[in-house]
User: Which sequence fits this backbone?
């Protein structure tokens, strides 16, 4: 049984979040938490909170032992893009795209 946690509109590009998500896919939860704790990337802190939420969901809703959990799937989809302008010379402006993403982490019990 897979238990999931999802974060919508995370203030991070999907490409940067996928770099961190690929590191923890398929690992036991305790190893994944160690990797995310000591990651120097912004996505590490965000994915750690989502993983802790998925573990809490598994413990509270399903009553599974958290020592037997592993990260089964991590997927990151693109979210809405906020479009902004930055002033440039001679009355012009450049577009700035502030990208967001939707992150879903699923954990499952290993037997």
Assistant:
């Amino acid at each position: 049984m897979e238990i999931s946690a999802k974060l919508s509109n995370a203030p991070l590009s999907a490409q940067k979040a996928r770099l961190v998500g690929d590191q923890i896919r398929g690992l036991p939860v305790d190893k994944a938490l160690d990797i995310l704790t000591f990651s120097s990337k912004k996505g590490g802190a965000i994915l750690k909170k989502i993983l802790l939420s998925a573990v809490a969901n598994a413990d509270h809703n399903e009553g599974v032992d958290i020592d037997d959990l592993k990260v089964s799937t991590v997927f990151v989809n693109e979210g809405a893009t906020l479009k902004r302008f930055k002033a440039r010379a001679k009355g012009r402006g450049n577009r700035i795209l502030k990208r967001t993403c939707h992150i879903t982490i699923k954990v499952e019990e290993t037997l």
